[in-house]
Design goal:
Number of helices: 12
Structural class: alpha+beta
CATH architecture of the largest domain: 3-Layer(bba) Sandwich
Radius of gyration: 21 Å
CATH topology of the largest domain: FAD/NAD(P)-binding domain
Number of strands: 21
Helix content: 25-40%
CATH class of the largest domain: Alpha Beta
Largest sheet: 8 strands, mixed
CATH superfamily of the largest domain: FAD/NAD(P)-binding domain
Bound molecules: flavin-adenine dinucleotide
Number of domains: 2
Strand order of the largest sheet: 4-12-13-16-11-19-17-18
Distance between the termini: 27 Å
């Protein structure tokens, strides 16, 4: 008879890893499953010199042990205010204490001790942001950098390997439930993997799979706002006053024309713009940013994202986000890059214009073009208005040479209906991390994994006593 695991976890990203770390001490049978590879075997062809995205399946940047965390910039945002809606789901006190706990675990696995975003200068920057029509959300932040983040996750892989079963290069194909209770996962090789508890932590990359499975199981889904935007790249000196104090400045703005929430996201001082492919069997290429602590570029990049909420009968936020990303892919073969000055003049950027630019693009594979063909007016307008306001706080950020890469889309737009312990409407089936819409970053993804694992341990204890 096939083995039955106490717990199966789908997804080896921070949510799945932190759930595993909690469960690994309990002497129970745990299986951690991921469609990607071991962390050491994850090499993006672009970083190996390829000029364009080869649509690896699955994408090495976001799949495998470490999940999207393995190539992330490793910014640990130590606040309940950013990185996801965990505080609304589990309460402020619980979220705060979990964030501190998660931070202590990253420290144990090698995160550096320095913390940004504290001190008198922060209050001064907040004041100046208000005068520029922006809200600066002060956030304590620990920066691991892409290499430290990878090392910390690698150390977790080494720690977990002897304690639980880890099955890589194997995708979960479908969820099997009977009479409202979860029973098993069917893997893509046809194998049935039985379990008492199931944790779904497939990340943004797997959010479409999760949404489709949820529909099959007739679960209710809420639509999160859709985040669409561009990645901005400027010379590092322009952002230095902010980044030296805050590392990442979380700025928020409401667009004058549409009253949409527009915000900066994932700032990478001295970092590189990269492309990633998401969306499983029907992938699209989107843009993102990373930063090493040692190899710095002369540029700083960050996303400007516009959040919009759609109303009935709209139920396809992921399909909509993919559609927008695909337009840029069709136009450019991947990622478009345009100088802000060219966008404002109503003309495309060309290789020659980029060569005359003050900012050398860190993503060499991006194609010079015209973002106004790829992004709806509403998004572009919000982005330009935000940059103009930011220019009052950070002179030079809205210069003609500023580079805009498109499209950046965040695929966490469908949220399963969950209880405060993150259980779905199927008994013993839990969801954690970005793919389930309960987090938007490393810390809250990790914390959500801990929430679920502790609930399962409580139930297992009860069953034993
Ligand atoms: C380039 C980049 C930079 C980033 N920088 C930062 C940063 O500085 N700070 C920050 O807080 N956040 C950052 N992030 C976001 C952060 O990485 C994510 O928020 C975090 O990794 C989410 O964790 P997760 O466990 O929910 O999912 P993920 O890390 O996405 O992991 C999900 C895993 O599930 C697997 N999976 C999906 N579907 C299946 C399936 N059907 N079967 C089996 N396995 C499956 C995937 O292969 C993947 O390995 C960055 C992300 C990227 C891509």
């Amino acid at each position: 008879m096939a083995k039955k695991y106490d717990v199966i976890i789908v997804g080896c990203g921070p949510a799945g890893i932190f759930a595993s770390l909690e469960l690994s001490h309990a002497g129970i049978d745990v299986l951690l499953l991921d469609k990607g590879r071991e962390i050491e075997a994850r090499v993006c062809p672009i970083q190996g010199g390829s000029e364009s995205c080869l649509f690896c399946s699955p994408c090495h940047l976001v799949s495998g042990f470490g999940g999207a965390g393995a190539f992330s910039d490793g910014k640990l945002t130590l606040s309940t205010e950013v990185g996801g809606p965990l505080k609304e789901l589990i309460g402020f006190d619980e979220a705060k204490s979990l964030i501190d706990y998660v931070d202590s675990v990253y420290l144990k696995f090698g995160a550096p001790h320095e913390v940004y975003g504290t001190g008198e200068k922060v209050a001064e920057l907040e004041r100046r942001a208000i005068l520029s029509g922006l809200k600066l959300i002060p956030v304590k932040l620990r920066h691991l950098g892409t290499e430290h983040c990878r090392w910390a996750l690698q150390a977790m892989q080494k720690h977990l390997s002897p304690k639980i079963d880890i099955k890589l290069r194997t995708a979960a194909k479908s969820i099997i439930a009977e009479d409202g209770t979860v029973k098993a996962i069917e893997a893509n090789n046809g194998e049935r993997l039985n379990c008492t508890y199931l944790i779904l932590a497939p990340g943004r990359e797997g959010s479409e799979w999760l949404t489709n499975e949820a529909k099959q199981l007739k679960l209710n889904l809420n639509c999160n706002p859709i985040d669409v935007g561009v990645r901005v790249e400027v010379p590092s000196v322009i952002m230095e006053e902010l980044t030296s104090v805050l590392y990442e400045s979380k700025l928020e703005f409401y667009s004058r024309s549409f009253d949409d929430r527009v915000r900066t996201f994932c700032m990478c001082p001295g970092g590189e713009v990269i492309m990633e492919s998401t969306g499983g069997s029907d992938p699209v290429i989107t843009v993102n940013g990373i930063g090493y602590t040692k190899h710095k570029t002369y540029n700083t990049n960050f996303a400007i994202l516009v959040s919009t909420t759609f109303t009935e009968p709209f139920h396809e936020p992921i399909a909509y986000g993919k559609y927008l990303a695909r337009v840029a892919n069709i136009l450019s073969g991947g990622i478009l890059v345009q100088r802000l000055g060219d966008l404002m003049e109503g003309r495309r950027s060309t290789k020659a214009r980029l060569q005359r630019s003050l900012v050398e693009p860190s993503l060499k594979a991006a194609t010079p073009g015209d973002l106004s063909f790829a992004l709806p007016f509403r998004y572009l307008k919000g982005i330009v208005e935000m940059l103009q306001n930011m220019d009052k706080l950070v002179p030079g950020v809205a210069a003609a040479h500023t580079l805009l890469y498109g499209t950046e889309v965040k695929f966490y737009s469908s949220q399963l209906q969950l209880t405060p312990c993150l259980e779905t409407e199927i008994s013993n089936m839990f969801a954690a991390g970005d793919g389930a819409g309960v987090s938007r970053g490393l810390v809250q993804a990790s914390a959500s994994g801990v929430v679920v694992a502790r609930e399962i341990l409580k139930r297992l204890d009860k069953n034993l006593s």
